[in-house]
Amino acid sequence: MSKRTRPVFPRQRQRAEALGERLQLARLRRGVPQTEMAARIGVSRMTLGRLEAGDPSVGLSVLLRALDVLGLATDVDRIAEEDEVGRQLEDLRLSRAPRRRAASR
After folding, report:
1. Which one-letter DSSP state was computed for residue 81?
2. 15, 49, 50, 102: least buried by Cβ within 10 Å?
3. What is the mean pLDDT of residues 99-103?
4. How many angstroms separate the CA atoms of 30 and 61, rounded?
């Protein structure tokens, strides 16, 4: 029985495809053939092709291993590093939180 996949919104699909293209270009710039890259990350050439095509069903671990092989693993550390919206929401929540009164002496 095959796994049911959820639909991907068009903007997400475009981002996944753009990421796949960037990964492919990084591999090509380094002169690494697809078969060698696939072997180094421990997947089939077909799975690497799907990753480079932006197939969102390719696992995160495959992406992480590919980034590692390309020397781009630290790029992952920058994802959601600057969460400006989250910080603003937290500040707003904290400013609206009821304040405790100091214990009277």
Report:
1. -
2. 102
3. 65
4. 21
